[in-house]
Design brief:
- By secondary structure, the chain is of the alpha/beta class.
- It has a single domain, classed as 5'-nuclease (Rossmann fold, 3-Layer(aba) Sandwich), CATH 3.40.50.
- Helices cover about 55% and strands about 10% of the residues.
- It has helices at about 10-20, 25-35, 40-55, 60-80, 85-90, 105-115, 130-135, and strands at about 5-10, 35-40, 80, 125.
- Helix 1 crosses helix 2 (about 25-35), helix 5 (about 85-90) crosses helix 6 and helix 6 (about 105-115) runs parallel beside helix 7 (about 130-135).
- The two termini are about 25 Å apart.
């Protein structure tokens, strides 16, 4: 199998993968074949909160939630984590001024832009349409 370019996977895309939502299979394949996976520290936080919401909703059994946690951890263990540095936070405040990005999406975009200084080929994987538009990438299908 040929490795795909490295990618920064944003929370919406990672959650879509582990929850088996539309586009998750394609994403899962991309993550398995990626040369390197990158995440923002924010992704870890958002995914942890998503698991808590699953428990509170009561729509998923504990076995299913344990599987989701395990699948998330498997990706996060393999990922290079980018901190919420002063540089990322400052850039998030001014990034994509012509797009109506929410704050956390601006943090993901800023993280990707900072990480691309090290790896210009780094792809952004997101299921969020606003974030994808601001980044000039296609959102994950779904």
């Amino acid at each position: 199998m040929t490795a795909l370019p490295s990618c920064l996977v944003e929370s919406s895309a990672l959650l879509r993968t582990v929850l088996g939502q539309a586009g998750g299979t394609e994403l899962s394949t991309r993550l398995v074949l990626a040369r390197e996976i990158h995440v923002s520290r924010l992704t870890r936080i958002e995914c942890a909160r998503a698991v808590l919401r699953l428990r509170l909703a009561g729509d998923h059994g504990e076995r299913e939630i344990a599987r989701v946690e395990s699948d998330l951890q498997a990706v996060l263990d393999r990922a290079r984590e980018h901190s919420l540095s002063e540089e990322v936070c400052e850039l998030a405040g001014r990034v994509a001024p012509h797009h109506a990005l929410r704050t956390l999406d601006a943090v993901h975009l800023a993280t990707w832009q900072v990480a691309r200084r090290i790896d210009p080929e780094l792809e952004l994987l997101t299921a969020d349409r606003r974030l994808a538009a601001a980044a000039g990438v296609e959102p994950v299908a779904g």
